[in-house]
Every structure is written in structure tokens, then in C-alpha cells.
């Protein structure tokens, strides 16, 4: 399983959580039982979801500060989840923004509509400019 495939599984769990309020911890266990991942990928997967849950409220606040003319609750679910993942990766995990943006755009191509990629790119660009200044 590639890193991108692991991220895709994380997206699916967070999407389900956003739509139906599923328990992330329960879903994490179920996915780990059904998918074959290397030890390193399992550790990444578990750490990502555990730390994400600890920081989700703060992440939503940070996204809300960047979404101009909209409220977070009005965003489409794919945009919410991609932004949450991206903000988490940039602000909490300190993953390089080039990697995060690339992964976010790939998720947007798969799960969003034709406007999702540009919207995500704009919000993340604003975040990064703010961090760098």
C-alpha cells in the first residue's frame, strides 16, 4: 500500500465521520483489520488519526479564519475533509507544504467537483503565505 493509498483511506474515514458522525477510533481499528499495510504505514495511519482527533477543533477554527465569504459549515464535505487534512498536516505535523498541496489536489481531483482543486489551492496558498510572513 502506497502513502497516497493510506492517505486515501484516512480521507474516507474522515469523510464518513463528517457525514454520519462515525467514530474515528472504531473505524481506524476496522480498517487496520481489513487492509494490509507495512508496520511503518500502520504507525503513520494510527498516529495521523489519533493526533487529528486531538486537534480537530483547533483545525476547524483555523480553517474558518481563512474561508472568506463562507462559513465552514457551508462548505461541501469533500472540501471540509481535504482542508482539515491539509491544515492538520501543515500546522500540526509540519509536513512540507509542497507535499501537502500536491496530495490535497490529488484528493480534490478524485472526490471533489471541477472547482474543488482551485478552491483548496487558494485556501492553502493563503495559509502558507501567512505562515511565511
UniProtKB/TrEMBL annotation:
Keyword tags: RNA-binding, Transcription, Transcription antitermination, Transcription regulation
Lineage: Bacteria, Fusobacteriati, Fusobacteriota, Fusobacteriia, Fusobacteriales
Highest taxon in the source lineage: Bacteria
Keyword Cytoplasm: no
Entry's Gene Ontology BP terms: DNA-templated transcription termination; transcription antitermination
PANTHER family in the cross-refs: ANTITERMINATION NUSB DOMAIN-CONTAINING PROTEIN (PTHR11078:SF3), N UTILIZATION SUBSTANCE PROTEIN B-RELATED (PTHR11078)
Gene Ontology molecular functions: RNA binding
Function: Involved in transcription antitermination. Required for transcription of ribosomal RNA (rRNA) genes. Binds specifically to the boxA antiterminator sequence of the ribosomal RNA (rrn) operons.
NCBIfam families: nusB
Keyword Transcription regulation: yes
Protein name per Swiss-Prot or TrEMBL: Transcription antitermination protein NusB
Similarity comment text for this entry: Belongs to the NusB family.
GO CC, alphabetical: cytosol
NusB/RsmB/TIM44 domain span: 5-129
Amino acid at each position: 500500500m502506497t502513502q497516497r493509498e493510506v492517505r486515501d483511506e484516512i480521507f474516507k474515514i474522515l469523510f464518513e465521520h463528517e457525514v454520519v458522525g462515525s467514530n474515528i477510533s472504531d473505524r481506524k481499528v476496522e480498517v487496520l483489520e481489513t487492509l494490509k499495510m507495512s508496520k511503518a504505514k500502520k504507525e503513520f495511519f494510527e498516529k495521523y488519526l489519533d493526533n487529528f482527533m486531538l486537534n480537530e477543533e483547533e483545525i476547524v477554527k483555523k480553517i474558518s479564519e481563512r474561508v472568506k465569504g463562507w462559513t465552514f459549515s457551508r462548505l461541501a464535505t469533500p472540501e471540509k475533509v481535504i482542508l482539515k487534512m491539509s491544515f492538520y498536516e501543515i500546522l500540526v505535523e509540519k509536513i512540507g507544504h509542497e507535499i501537502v498541496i500536491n496530495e490535497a489536489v490529488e484528493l480534490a481531483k478524485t472526490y471533489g467537483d471541477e472547482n474543488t482543486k482551485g478552491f483548496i489551492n487558494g485556501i492553502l496558498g493563503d495559509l502558507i503565505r501567512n505562515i511565511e510572513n
